[in-house]
Each structure stands twice: as structure tokens, then as C-alpha cells.
Write a structure and sequence with these properties.
mainly alpha; single chain
Length: 160
Amino acid sequence: MKKLTFVLLAGLLALTACDNDTTNQAMDDDVSPAVEQPTEAAATAEESLRTPADLSEEDSAEMYKIIFDYNKCMMASRLNATQDHKSMQNSANEILQSCESHLTHLEDHLNSQNLNKALVIGMVHKMRSKAARKLMAQGMNQMAAQAMAAESADKMKAAE
């Protein structure tokens, strides 16, 4: 995964360098001085640089409420999940799917506030992957604890 990320980053940098060279050459060819006028695209670019720190208090409170509701849903779903040893991954998927609507709501809320699209996507993805890792780690720890308890019970039976 690290190699793929590195290759993609290197390709992006190379593409950007080539694009800058072409832009610089086109600027050198144009001898007429042009006065740049602010455009609607420039205004849109400025708006797309907004982060959650730029939200109003009400919008920020709504964002935190959605995140709180997501975390609450995850805890409640974990408590209600079936504890089947063979389908730990299926249980984790069911839990994640049951709370997905909160992440969709968060993404919609942040996009409606004209926040940076990449930032919004990254934030939602990070929350989703963090929850998945946590669920799988807890499941694995639970399975290990149950295996140790079963092994201890077998040793106690054998000692009798």
C-alpha cells in the first residue's frame, strides 16, 4: 500500500511539474501584459478552501451532534451485535452499515457548508476506517480471550 501511495504521489508530482512547464512556456510566448480580473472560478476556489474551523457556531454544533450520534450508534450496535465466532467480520459489516446513515448525513451537512470536498471525503473516510479497525481489533481480542478461557477450562478438566 505504501509503494502504491508513493508511486501515485510521484506520478502526481511529475504531472504537476509537466503542467507547470507548459503553463510557464505559454506565459513566455504571450507578450501582451494582461490584467487579471477576479472571476467566479476564483471566488469558488476561495470558498472551497473552507475547513470545519470556518463553520458558524450553529453549524459546528450540528457537525459535532452528528459525530456524537454516529459514535452512539456504533456503541449501541456493538452491544446488540450477535456474538458469533464464525462471522465476526459479518457482524462488523452489519454494525458499520447500520450507522452509515450518520456518515452520509455528516457528509451532506459539511458539503452544504461549502467545505473543501477533499477534506470532507477524507474526514468521512477516516471515521469509517477508524471504526472498522476498532471493531475488528475488539473482535479479535474477544476471540482470543474466549480461546484462552476454553484452553484454561480444558486444562482444569485434564487436571481433575
